[in-house]
Structures are given as C-alpha cells and as structure tokens.
Amino acid sequence: MADVVLREETDTGDRTGLPVTYDGQVVDAPVDEEKIRAVLSRFVGSIDQLPPMYSALKRDGKPLYEYARQGIELERETRRITIFSIELLSCTESGFSMEVSCSKGTYIRTLAQDIGRMLGCGAHLGALRRTRTAGFDIGQAVTLEGLEALDVAATALMPIEALLAPLPVVTIDQARAAKFMQGQKLQIETEGQTAGDATAITGPDAETILTRARVHGPDSKFLGTARCIGGWLQPDRLISFKETT
C-alpha cells in the first residue's frame, strides 16, 4: 500500500528528499479521481522502469546513492517489471492511496513519480507498507507485544521451512541424515533405480527433475536444503541443531 503526495516531486522520489521540478510540470494542474484512475490503468502490465539514482544498485562496485549524494547523475538502463494490478483506495486534492501488486525489482518511489508526471503535476511517495511477499500476508503477522504471550507464540510462529514451501521434499533415513549433516552428498533415487545410498523424493514435484530441494530426516525433521546435481543430492544450507545432554 502506498500513499502518493501530489504537486511535489523530490530528488529521492519520497518524502525524505528535497523538492525538485521538471520540464513541463504544472503544479496546479487539475487532478480528480477519474483522471487518477485513468492514469493508474496505464501502468498495469509489463513496463520499462528507470531505477532511481537513490538506490542500492551498483556501478563500478559503488552504490548509485553514493553518486547521487555527490550530485552525480549517471545514465541507467531501464528494467522490465510487471505491475499486476493497481487499486485506488482513496484520494484527496493533495494526494491518494493505492494498493499495488508488482514483480520483484519494482521501485514504488519511481512508480509514484511516473504517475505524477503523467498527471502533469508531479508527485512523490509519502508512505509505503508492504502487505504481501513470497506467499506471506501481513495478516499472518503478530506484534511483539502479542508474541510475548506464550499461547499466542505457540500458534503464530511459523516453522523456518515455511519459507521454502515451493521446493520439493527429499526424505532420508537416519544413516543418510548423518552423512548429509556432515556435508556428504547422496545419490538420488529415481524411478527404476535402487542404489544403496539413494534417497526417496516425495511431494507433488516428485516426478520432476530437481535442481533444489528441502531435505527431511526421520520424523519429517527439517535438515536443510540441497542442490540436485547429476543424480546426486549436494548439501547446500544446513540447520544447526543444539545438542542437549
């Protein structure tokens, strides 16, 4: 969700920057809800977006924002992004709020600026709140105060492997789990093979060719992730378990 402030553009694209003007800007250009909706619709789909100078993208090993702070403007290549949807939530004479669903790499600051220029009056990003990412929704979030209550923590905390839900599962027994946790690679079992050190692939993607997977040991214990290379399961990221005595 983003709040866009109309009639003022800034050098950073958000409210932390200094006011700037651009050729063709008409600060008092008439803007109403109908015009805003019409302009927003023009940004839906695949578009080319120019990354802002105030960004962490690097040139010659140096972030662009460092050049920007020195007053240096560098040429940048546009990047192809996708705006899946834009919904106008509310609007006033001074600005509007919108909900944007977009692809990775989208700069909402730049989107707000481009919308302002198309409206003719200029604009910058006043506030931004991410509500969804990688399959997670802000509705699943819990405040720190709420987390302090044990009964809430028990139901609100999600297992670490929830982040890896799209990856298929490889299940191995105790002996192979021990080898895996020591960084040893294991042979992957595929249909028609019964190799001694083979593993069993489970889950909806079991029949597909794997490039990366999450690995479970006995009792479905999550051990880490692995890369599947040439019929072998190569440990990638392992979970460290604290031993108890």
UniProtKB/TrEMBL annotation:
It catalyses: uridine(55) in tRNA = pseudouridine(55) in tRNA. GO terms for biological process: mRNA pseudouridine synthesis; tRNA modification. Keywords: Isomerase, tRNA processing. The keyword tRNA processing applies. One of its GO terms (molecular function) is RNA binding. It is an enzyme of class 5 (isomerase). InterPro entries: PsdUridine_synth_cat_dom_sf, PsdUridine_synth_N, tRNA_psdUridine_synth_TruB, tRNA_sdUridine_synth_fam1_C, TruB_C. The keyword Transport does not apply. Residues 109-164 form the tRNA pseudouridylate synthase B C-terminal domain. Pfam families: TruB-C_2, TruB_C_2, TruB_N. Residues 168-239 form the tRNA pseudouridine synthase II TruB subfamily 1 C-terminal domain. Its EC number is 5.4.99.25. Residues 3-108 form the Pseudouridine synthase II N-terminal domain. Belongs to the pseudouridine synthase TruB family. Type 1 subfamily. PANTHER family: PSEUDOURIDYLATE SYNTHASE TRUB1, TRNA-PSEUDOURIDINE SYNTHASE. This is tRNA pseudouridine(55) synthase.
